[in-house]
Structures are given as C-alpha cells and as structure tokens.
Amino acid sequence: MLNSTYKSPISPSVSWYEDSLSERPVYSALEDDVQCDVVVIGGGFCGLSAAYHLAKGGSSVVLIEAYRFGDGASGRNGGQIGTGQRYGVVELEEQFGFERAKALFQIAENAKQNLHDIAGENNFEYDYLPGQISCLYKARDVEEEKQFIAVMNEKYDYDKISFIDKAKTSELLGTDLYHGGALDQGTGHIHPMKYVVGLAKSASNAGAKMCENTKATGIESTKSASGETVIKVKTAKGTITAQNCIMATNAYGDDLEPVTARHVLPIQSFIGATEPLGDELNVLPEKHSVDDSRFMLRYYRKTKDNRLLFGGREAYTSAWPTDVGKHIRKQMVELYPHLQDVPFTHAWGGSVGITPSRLPFVREVKPGVISAAGFSGHGVMMANYTGRMMAESLMGKTSELDVIKDLDISAFPGGRTFSKPLLFLALTWFAFLDKF
Predict the structure, then answer these.
(1) Residue 209 is part of a domain; what is its CATH number?
(2) What is the phi/psi pair of residue 313, to 5°?
C-alpha cells in the first residue's frame, strides 16, 4: 500500500482508494507547445478512455489534467457500476418512447461490457466484485419495483435482475431496515482508482501523450485559411494546437467553458471506509454493492478486504464540511447500529456532475470542441463509454454517440448565479420528503 501523503488541491482528505494502491505513476506536466490530432482536457474516466481509444486507433493525442489523474470523481466515487441509465427504463420510455429508451439501455449495457473489455485487453486489476442490490426504503414502493423488474425481464430482455423480499434483503445486507429490493447479478462494483491507474497506463502505452498538473486556461476555435477548424488550448507553459478537442472536465470545468457550466452542476458526495470487518458482524456477507430508494440515497459496499465503504451525505455548496466522518457515521449506524464503535480509517468526498434530467450532457460547444459531462452518479460505466463513443465518432467508426448527443438536456434555471441556490432548495425539499 502507498499510504499516500499526497493531497489533491481540490479535496482536503485522502481517500482509502489512494492509500490502498500499490502504485500511482506520476506523469510530467506539459512544458512547451505541441501539435496533435485531438487534445483531451480532463484526466478522469471519460478523458482517459477517449485518449486510449483515439491513440489505439492511430490518432495523435495529448491529454491534459489540471491536477492528477483520478483526483476528481473518477478516483473517489462509490465504485458502483449499475445497470441502465440514471433513470429506469419505465421513466425513459414514458419520456422518449420504447425505441429510444431501448437504445439508451443498450448503450448502458455496452458500457458495462466495455469496462471489463478494456481491463482484460490491458491486463490490469480493478477489484471487480459481482452483484448489486437496490433496496426499498418505503413499503409502498414494493409493487412498483416488481412491475419494473417484470418490464426489465420481459420487454428489455434483461433476466439478470430479480425481486427479493424483506427477509432475503435482510439476509444479504445484515439490516432489516428495508422492505425488499432488486438483486442485479449482471453488474457489480470496482476499485475506481485502480481502474484510473490502469486506464492511464493503457492510454500511455497506446501512444497518447499524458500530462498531469497541466491546467487548461482557455480554448480557442478558429478557421484556417483553407477553412479547416483549428483548436488552440492554452496552458501555463504551452499551447496545444489540434484539429479537435474533447472536453471531459465534468464537475470541474466551470471556469473554462460556459455552455457546459450552465447544464452541469457539481454536488459534493462523501464516503467513509471502516477498518476490515469480521464475519461475526454480518454486514453484506456476499459483498454486494447497495443503493436505496431514497431521493437522497445511501450507497455502500464491501471491499475485497472486508471494509465497508459507506456513502450518502451530500452537500450543494462549495464550502467543504467539517468532520465528514461524523455525518457519514450517523447514516451508517442508522442501518448498522452494531457498527457504532467500528472506526473509520478514511473519510473523503468529491464533486459529482449532475444535469436536470440526470442524463449525460454531450454537445459541440464550439466548432471542433465536444464536451461530455453530467453523468449524475453513473460515471463509472457511462463516463468511460462516452469517452470511447466520442473517440470513435471522431474517427468515423460509429454513430452510437448520436443517441446521447440528441438528448435535449436543459440548462439549470437561474443561470450560473442562481442555479446552485435553487438546486439547494429543491434537493433539501426532496430530502424532507424522504422522511415520509
């Protein structure tokens, strides 16, 4: 284990993910002017995946990250993969119709497989563990969940999900707080920082120029004398000139490009990691990952070495809360009172980008500049796959990205000045409704 002393400038706390790594390679900052086919801004799942697939396909690529790869949500999240988009197929079908809902679901299935394929192709470990349980916090939601599972089984040909009753849920979780749930054997959870490290190495090995501690300070899009688009991305010590630009900053691009900032807002989310738990404590004995049906959901899972990683507290302001572990512990003990005296070894947080519809925002924001953000808690698989889709779109290999680009993602009301206060009021209201 590294037992890292490095602290990201965007987060005051070291995560268990960082401390549990056996290695975290450092990539040099950009020090001069360079030219390439595609410049990628952002070293999380989306940007790393785009760089990997572009370089693998023969394009010259420069990827820049303002801090270190994985310092944002990609290296600090709950590690859960999920199934489908952020909203279920029933809601998507009501909004878009069956054919489009089916296409969005299939993209998500492709995204799951893509995670495993990349790791397999490049032989890196990411601690995948199978199985996820979506639990019902309110008894009145049981019938609706059964209907959803039937639709998944029969209409979307997804037979890996099944209903579990209150007794079985209690057995698999070690708590009797829930009224049942959906057991999904077609997904699972990973160590996200190990995946970041493996994906960055894979992109570098494929030929991408990888630069950490290189903040983009501006993006210019102009036309050459022959009418071709020319992109110039400025940094502190150099300029990258390219034919195309992929912007993959998610919740961290407010000061770089205003269109994305109007459609994607950051929400802080926090996680605590316990010391390894003994079997006698009966917490997630089969190491499933869990999310629940509260609007302000709890999400948690067991690691390979039997730690409980518990996430749930959210914040909607830029101020970093004091004593993160205290608030996470309160939520954990609500579910597992017998863990009252089990210490956290780590407590950390970070910002997740969300959109009003909780579907990804993908759009050409300037000529030659395509931005992808707002994965709304589904970034482990969807950010990775969106990076691949953007890369393949630029190389003319597929039109799959069009399904996402065609989504009409509205801007948050109130503009950049008032959107965060309005979001705070809305989410506080929904948190209040969770109590009833």
Answers:
(1) 3.50.50.60
(2) -70, 135
